[in-house]
Amino acid sequence: MRRLVIEVAPAEHTVLRLAEGQPPPPELFGLGAGALVSVVSAADGVTVVCPTRNAPAAETREDGWRVLSVRGPLDFTLTGIMAALAGELAAAGVSLFAVSTYDTDHVLVKATDLERAVKALREAGHEVAPL
Asked: Which CATH number do you get for residue 26?
């Protein structure tokens, strides 16, 4: 696996599931550059990832996530990036929530696991922006 450059976003994020029929708030899409917002609609509901300070009310939510983003853009022909990150974090006992965009991959780790995650990724040879 090639050496990746990974940046740690400063804000805590929330992963939540919206109630059936509840649309995501339109203001989530106007947070500006640097804010990671992901909305995925699937058979099991609508999942939203967004900065905690902007998270809508939801009965099902997990606060306290930090975002680690691979510096991109990444070519679609590249293979094994997410597998490498997941494997390195799993070996360190760190669970993750994955989000991909057109240009890159992001992994969210619990804030309580951030230091352990960064250490594992650095030991695997990746560059991680200072915390």
From this structure: 3.30.2130.10
